[in-house]
User: Fold this.
Amino acid sequence: MAETRIVVRNISDTARWAAVFRANETKRPDAIFRDPFAARLAGTLGVDIANTLPEGNSHAWAWVARTYLFDQFIEREIGSGADMVINLAAGLDARPYRMQLPAALQWIEIDLPEILDYKETVLAGEMTSCRLERLRVDLSDAGDRKAVFTELAARARNILVLTEGLIIYLDSKEVISFAQDLAVHAPFRRWILDLHSPGLLRLMQRTAGTQLSQVGAQFKFAPSEGPAFFEPHGWKASDVQGLLKTAARFKRPPLGLRLLSLWPENKGPQGSRPWSGVCLLSRTA
Assistant:
């Protein structure tokens, strides 16, 4: 435990952890996506985090499936006319570099200064396929968050919001506030997020979550209502894809979990059943 506390310094370091799994997937001859920047972004610290957190490497299939599903939803929404993508808590995501995106697309990354400064240093000299802009904003500050949402809403007509790996670290009140702040602006039309069941949250809290909580990165949010949690706050699920079923299509999980993936999937409330997925939400008004 002492070693883990030294390795994981803050919540931003979880971005390096995630980059490890993108890097490992990229090495596979049958990779379902390729991120040639992930290994550099993860660095030795990312590898150390994956190797020292309890079960830090055990669920690589879920991270890979999450990345794949976000990619698929993003491509679909851009194909349907999204003219701006806002990546909240963007971390070390490299999609503007690794995906073929329209040159006119506005891609906005928002995160804390330290993690964005690090990414800029690592990716210095690399070319993006779209118009990339980085904003250094503390999204936990409601006033700053609302101000930047208002400014960005005036710059596009059809905005897609991403919160990949973010809302699990928020409590219910904070998620509601986020949802309502986004729903205020009509151009914010779609929102992609990952969601966990209460049963899975409890398992995560007992493994890697034990150490992450010591650096202020507690796993918190897993609504019993499932995607329906967002309906009173301006958003309704348009599409929900489970991580296990997605990963099983590409033979990523261990065999036992692949067999489990054959069961019918309930995409609503999950209760104690371990489940996670990626949700595409649409504004309700």
In short: The chain is about 40% helix and 15% strand.
